[in-house]
Write a structure and sequence with these properties.
The chain is an all-alpha fold. It has helices spanning about 15-50, 55-80, 85-100, 105-135, 140-165, 175-180, 180-190, 200-205, 210-220, 245-270, 270-275, 285-305, 310-330, 335-355, 360-365, 370-400, 400-420, 430-435, 435-449; strands at about 5, 225. One of its GO terms (molecular function) is carbohydrate:proton symporter activity. Keywords: Membrane, Transmembrane, Transmembrane helix, Transport.
Length: about 450
C-alpha cells in the first residue's frame, strides 16, 4: 500500500456512503411501517372480521413469522448471489403485498399476505446491516448501522400517526392503512436503482477487478483493497455459523436480539388495546407519548453508539428495561406509574435496539455475514412472533401485571446471556471484528493496551 493510500475501513466518509446509508435505511423505514401499521388496523379489523384473541394474535404475528423464514433463506441467498439482487427484489414484494392487502376478504387471506410480506422484510433484515457494514468506514460504522434501527423506529411511529389519521376513513379504513405501505416502498425502490455490489463480497468471490473498479469509482482513487486480498475466495456455508469456533457468537447474536424484541413487539403491537384496557379516555395520546419516547431513544442510541462499548451498552440496557417491566408488573393498576414505566422501557428499548443492526454485522466474516445476520434475525423473530401471539392471550388469561413480569424475566435472561457471551467490537476494523472469538479477544487486548 502506498504512502498516501488508505484501506476501505479507513476511507473518508463521502457522499456515496451517505447515499447508500439513506437508501438502506429507507428499506428499514418500510420494515418498521409495515410491522407498525397492523396495530391500528387490528383495532378496526377485530370487530369487522369478528376476530378472537387467537386470530388477533396470529395476524399481529404473521409478518414476524414470515421474517423468520425470510431472514434464513435470504441471508444465505445474499451471501451466495450477492447483495444487489436482494436489495431490489425485497421492495418489489413490499409493493405487491401492500397493494394486495387492500383486497383481502378474510383473516386467512390477510394472514398469508402478511406472512409473505414478512418474508421480504426478513430479506431486508439480513441484507441491510451486512451491506452497510461492508461499505462504511470503521469510525462511522457504529452510528450509521445504528441509524438503520433508528429509521425503522421512525417508520414504526409514522405508521401509528397515519393509522390514527385514517381511522375516520370509514369501515374500510383498515384497508387503506395496510395498503399505505406501498407509498414509501415505491420511493425507496426508485432510489436504490443503480446501487453497486459490495466490493468485499466480490473479493470473496474472486471478482477482484470488479471490486477494485467499484472502490475507485465510489469510495476514492486512493483507497487500496490490498488488505482485503489476503482473504481467500470462499463459498458461503451455513455450517460455519454452528461450528465450534462460531456457535457462541451465533447464539449470542440471535439470543440477545430475541430477548430485546419479545417484549418490544408484544407490547407495541397491542399498545392501543393495552391503554384502552386501563380505561384511558384517549389511548392515542398515551400511544403518541410512548412513540415519542421511542423516537427520542432511537436518536440517543445513534449518538451514544460509539461512546459506549458494545458490551456495556447491551448488558445495562437489559438491566433498565427489565427493572421497568418488573415495576410495571408489580403495580399494573396505577395508570401514572404504568405510563412512566412504559416510557422508560420505550426509550431504552429503542436506544438499545440500535445494537440489533450493529452487533450482528460486526460478529461474522464476509462469506457468512448476511447468513449470520439472517440467522440472528430469524432467532429473534421466533420470540417476537411468539410474544406478539401470546400477549393478548396472556393478558386475557392472567392480566397485565403477571404478563409484564414474564417480559421482565425474559429481559433479565438477555442480561445474563450478554454477560456470558458478548464480545467487544467497537474499535475494530470489520475484518478484525469478525475474527474467531479467540483471535478477537487477543486483538482487543492489544487495542486496549
Amino acid at each position: 500500500m502506498s504512502g498516501n493510500s488508505v484501506s476501505l475501513d479507513d476511507a473518508p466518509l463521502n457522499g456515496f456512503h451517505l447515499r447508500v446509508a439513506a437508501y438502506t435505511t429507507g428499506g428499514m423505514f418500510c420494515d418498521g411501517y409495515i410491522l407498525g401499521i397492523v396495530g391500528y388496523a387490528l383495532t378496526q379489523l377485530t370487530p369487522v372480521m369478528h376476530l378472537n384473541a387467537v386470530w388477533n394474535g396470529l395476524i399481529g404475528a404473521s409478518a414476524l413469522i414470515g421474517i423468520f423464514f425470510g431472514s434464513l433463506v435470504f441471508g444465505w441467498v445474499t451471501d451466495r448471489l450477492g447483495r444487489q439482487v436482494v436489495y431490489m427484489a425485497d421492495l418489489v414484494f413490499f409493493i405487491l403485498g401492500s397493494v394486495l392487502q387492500f383486497f383481502v376478504a378474510n383473516a386467512v387471506e390477510l394472514f398469508i399476505l402478511r406472512l409473505i410480506m414478512g418474508f421480504a422484510v426478513g430479506a431486508d433484515y439480513a441484507l441491510g446491516p451486512a451491506l452497510l457494514a461492508e461499505f462504511v468506514p470503521r469510525k462511522q460504522r457504529g452510528p450509521i448501522l445504528a441509524s438503520l434501527n433508528a429509521v425503522w423506529t421512525v417508520g414504526y411511529v409514522v405508521s401509528m400517526i397515519i393509522g390514527y389519521g385514517l381511522q375516520g376513513a370509514g369501515p374500510g379504513a383498515w384497508r387503506w392503512m395496510l395498503a399505505s405501505s406501498a407509498v414509501p416502498a415505491i420511493i425507496v425502490l426508485l432510489l436504490r436503482l443503480g446501487t453497486p455490489e459490495s466490493p468485499r463480497w466480490l473479493i470473496r468471490k474472486g471478482r477482484v477487478d470488479e471490486a477494485r473498479r467499484i472502490v475507485k469509482k465510489y469510495i476514492g482513487e486512493n483507497v487500496d483493497i490490498h488488505d482485503l486480498l489476503q482473504e481467500k475466495p470462499v463459498s458461503s456455508n451455513y455450517k460455519k455459523l454452528f461450528s465450534k469456533r462460531w456457535r457462541s457468537r451465533t447464539a449470542f447474536s440471535g439470543l440477545f436480539w430475541l430477548c430485546q424484541v419479545v417484549p418490544y413487539f408484544a407490547i407495541f403491537t397491542f399498545v392501543p388495546q393495552i391503554l384502552k384496557s386501563l380505561n384511558m379516555t384517549d389511548p392515542f395520546v398515551g400511544s403518541l407519548v410512548l412513540n415519542i419516547f421511542l423516537l427520542i431513544g432511537a436518536v440517543v442510541g445513534v449518538v451514544i453508539m460509539n461512546k459506549l462499548s458494545r458490551r456495556f451498552f447491551t448488558i445495562w440496557s437489559f438491566v433498565v428495561m427489565g427493572a421497568s417491566l418488573l415495576i410495571l408488573g408489580i403495580w399494573p393498576s396505577v395508570v401514572g406509574l404504568v405510563i412512566t414505566c412504559f416510557a422508560v422501557f420505550a426509550f431504552v428499548v429503542s436506544a438499545a435496539g440500535n445494537l440489533e443492526t450493529v452487533y450482528p454485522a460486526e460478529l461474522f466474516p464476509t462469506d457468512v455475514r448476511a447468513s449470520g445476520v439472517g440467522v440472528s434475525a430469524a432467532i429473534s423473530r421466533v420470540g417476537a412472533a411468539a410474544g406478539t401471539f401470546a400477549l393478548p392471550v396472556a393478558i386475557s388469561a392472567f392480566g397485565l401485571g403477571p404478563t409484564m413480569l414474564i417480559g421482565a424475566a425474559i429481559l433479565f435472561i438477555g442480561m445474563f446471556i450478554s454477560m456470558k457471551w458478548a464480545p467487544e467490537t467497537r474499535t475494530l476494523s470489520l475484518a478484525h471484528a469478525s475474527l474467531e472469538a479467540e483471535q478477537a479477544t487477543s486483538f482487543d487486548s492489544q487495542m486496549s493496551s
